[in-house]
Amino acid sequence: MNNFNEVEQKVAESLLQIKAIKLQPKSPFTWASGWRSPIYCDNRITLSHPAIRTYIRQKLAQLIQEEFGSVEMISGVATAGIPQGVLVAQDLGLPFTYVRSSAKDHGRQNLIEGEVVEGQRVVVIEDLISTGKSSLQAVQALRDAGCNVVGLVSIFTYGLDQAVKNFADAKCPMFSLCSYDALIHIAVKNSYVLDSDVEFLQSWRKDPASWTPAQ
């Protein structure tokens, strides 16, 4: 018996189906951080699939309304959070901004692109959460600009303990449509991985920075 809701399971199925998420327990990936990982996620691929893109947009918008109520602006985290954020802002009829990873080195040297009004209730959109570091840098930039950032939503989270702590420390509620546990459940159910791979996949999340593939 599992506790995963319909949205979690449908998003997991979709991400696996279009290979936005790949699980390779026997042949791990190497992330930009240098971490070795049996999972790789590129949710930009959802943008090329209209039905999946629409479902994700609708469910992110619904999640925002359920968890945060009245919101005055949507802001995306560059770069993968920008298109998702635009779609959600359009769905909710709200203004949109996005936060760069670093300020431009020319012109007005903007870190935040778009019109920011001090005191606005803002929800930040991200495509996925690993440690949460880059996402929370965007949150802080918006707060520094006078925004009232009420929380962040994403398509997928790895559910790392470090991310949970980072968001708690930043006093920024975070919600995702799909979790690592739900993904593994669906991956086993639909034969993307074997039952025997589950313990191995779960061991990565316990200590991703020092995890090494089984020999």
Task: Provide a short characterization of the protein structure.
Its EC number is 2.4.2.10. By secondary structure, the chain is of the alpha/beta class. It has helices at 6-17, 50-68, 81-92, 133-144, 161-169, 180-189, 198-206; strands at residues 21-23, 29-30, 36-37, 39-41, 73-77, 96-99, 112-113, 121-129, 148-157, 174-179.
In words, what does this structure look like?
One of its GO terms (molecular function) is orotate phosphoribosyltransferase activity. Its EC number is 2.4.2.10. 5-phospho-alpha-D-ribose 1-diphosphate binds at residues 100, 104, 106, 126-134. Pathway: Pyrimidine metabolism; UMP biosynthesis via de novo pathway; UMP from orotate: step 1/2. This is Orotate phosphoribosyltransferase. This protein has 215 residues and is α/β, with parallel strands linked by helices. The chain has a six-stranded mixed sheet, with helices on both faces. It has a two-stranded antiparallel ribbon with strand order 1-4. Strand 5, helix 3 (81-92) and strand 6 form a beta-alpha-beta unit. Helix content is 39%, strand content 21%. It has helices at 6-17, 50-68, 81-92, 133-144, 161-169, 180-189, 198-206; strands at 21-23, 29-30, 36-37, 39-41, 73-77, 96-99, 112-113, 121-129, 148-157, 174-179. Helix 1 (6-17) packs across helix 6 (180-189). It has one domain (6-206): 3-Layer(aba) Sandwich (Rossmann fold), CATH 3.40.50.2020.
